[in-house]
Amino acid sequence: MTPIDRIAATNRWRGRPLVEKALLGLGLLALALALPPWPAAPAILVVATLVVTRGAGVPLATWAKILAAPLGFVLTGAATLIVTVGDHGVALAPGGLAAASALTLRATAAIAGLLTLTLTTPATDLVAALRRVGVPAEIVEIALLTHRFLLVAGDTAQSMNAAQAARLGHVDWKRRIRSTGMLAANLLPRTLDRAHRLEQGLAARGWTGASLAVLRPEPPVSIRRLAAILALLVALALFGCLVP
């Protein structure tokens, strides 16, 4: 189980209705994409941080680590806007710094909004919701199988890395590079083999390929909380539009 899945299954908002969490998380995501990056993006980031840490009970350090993970891709993309390559070599692009800053702010706020939903809702709840809204069963099954395959791949990589460390495969940088290469070369075959064995285990228990049934409670939706979430989103929209 990945840290995100573990947090999603154990946070304080685990039992909240999915409608409320989806309205908040997807609403923050939509505002991050629709509003000007300044000052809307910092406000969305602050709201998402308070919701996840104070509301759902996720430690601030854990939230910061999870949020920082995709920022490497964001900063890499933003860096390409700062420079330009022409006949005279590499130079600073006109307006590149402003464009890069806007992109970084908008992307960070959008990621924070999406993580607000991801860190408070297990994947099984999201899959069940997709089925209820009429998403084709094939697409839902592909998404669920991809998620399970990634879990198996992550667990396999952790086991292989621990085995290499126990055999002194990480004592210096040369051995670490060699161990990393061996791990990368053997990860996919071992993951596929483990996934195949899991499939055989399910088949031995009578699984025919249909969706796995998951029991989950259906908490009632609170009109008061929905109204509070809508008021918060409206306030953020007004703040992002009216504040210069």
Describe the secondary structure blueprint for this structure.
Layout: H1 3-10, H2 18-34, H3 37-55, H4 60-68, H5 71-82, E1 83-86, E2 89-92, H6 96-118, H7 123-132, H8 137-166, H9 173-204, H10 223-242
Antiparallel strand pairs: 1-2
Helix pairs in contact: 2-3, 2-6, 2-10, 3-6, 3-10, 5-6, 7-8, 8-9
Descriptive account of the structure:
With 244 residues, this protein is mainly alpha-helical. It has two domains: 3-121 and 218-242, no CATH class; 134-204, no CATH class. 74% of the residues lie in helices and 3% in strands. The protein has helices spanning 3-10, 18-34, 37-55, 60-68, 71-82, 96-118, 123-132, 137-166, 173-204, 223-242, and strands at residues 83-86, 89-92. It has a two-stranded antiparallel ribbon with strand order 1-2. Strand 1 and strand 2 (89-92) form a beta hairpin.
> What would you call the shape?
globular
Q: Order the strands across the largest sheet as they lie in space.
A: 1-2
The assembly state of the depicted protein chains is single chain
Tell me the helix content.
over 70%
User: Describe the biggest sheet?
Assistant: 2 strands, antiparallel
The low-confidence parts are none
